[in-house]
Request: fold
Amino acid sequence: MTGANGVGKSSLLRTLAGLVPLKEGGISLEGGEDDRTAFEHSHYFGHQDAVKPALTVLENLTFWQAFTAPISADVFPTEIHKPADALEFLGIGHTARLPAAYLSAGQKRRLSLARLLVSSRPIWLMDEPTSALDRHSEAQLLGLMNAHLDRGGMIVTATHTDLPLNSIRTLHLEAPQDVRIVGELA
Amino acid sequence: MTGWALSLFRREISLAVRVGGSAMVGVLFFLAVVTVIPFGVGPDLNLLARIGPAVLWIGALLATLLGLDRLFQADREDGALDLFLMSGRSLELLVLIKCLAHWMATGLPLVIAAPVLAIFLNLEPVAIGAVTLTLLVGTPALTLIGAVGASLTVSLRRGGLLLAVLVIPLAIPVLIFGVSSADAAIHDPVPFMTPFLILCALTLITAVIGPLASAAALRFSSD
Reply:
């Protein structure tokens, strides 16, 4: 999903995540668990990291693993990492016992990303996923995203840079023309 | 279902007792309010004994309000509230567990401190027991009512003041029956059980209405 700043990329993602009420229409998911809504099939990876500075890195991740209701393996078979393994995989294993307050912005981002690896959900909603990541972590993230796509998962992401993913369909958002005209008149 | 509930409870307790948590602040504030009253009303021991239960209850009410504004706001600011809403867990149950953990961390210390502070106010042993018992039963209701206010003001930057204005009128019934059952224990002719059972009922009612109302308010706050 591409488009200029303020055109509504994040709002669209938050709507898909069930966080913004729909004005009209509906969101439904084919082939998911029947008794769950579309957003309960989704991981949301937004600008905020949902990391508590007072808890240790491992405590943060273990909580989200226990708290997030996973989608059953019949619907979406995938590999689920243990929290400590996910941290190790993302290169922040050495910080596991530290309070999350000591992490840098990029490390917090990686901790937040680890959330997607420890519980299984087929849809990833990602808002500018590469922000605050260094080049190495960015490549690793793209590897994870491609692996998720290869397993049959779906990713909806807002981005300003070209992401080299295996199968891409681009949705370009633009502000409606008449809004601009009203703006000029005013 | 018990797994996620337990880990949420444990997380909330850890957050409350660690650096930046609100567990001890409430008790210290309670201590400050109760010790300041005798300086205000003068050293009349009979008067202090008479108003003692009311002072302890008002102190507990104010101390409970103090920590409540962060109940959901902290989770909203770091994005955790969004994930709560998408988690597929019952939001009502989540609110109830958060309230329970919040009460264990901030309300229970008030109940434990109350007998000690009651001595400052020249309360008799029977009165001390009665006030402590009513606080034990009544402070959960204050937390649960406060949770509704906390979720209504969750998106406001300085919501704490508005929270107090919203919550205090709703907490008045709890205050009335809490103080009157403590008074009833001291003055013999009035039965203790009648106001005390109403206080118990108020707590049970808020345990149902509080989480429902609070969860509804949180759903509306999310956009």
Notes: Residues 148 and 214 of chain B are 4 Å apart (CA to CA). The interface with chain A takes residues 3-4, 6-8, 11, 14-15, 18-21, 77-80, 82-89, 222-223 of chain B (CB under 8 Å). Chain B is about 85% helix and 0% strand. The radius of gyration of chain B is 18 Å.
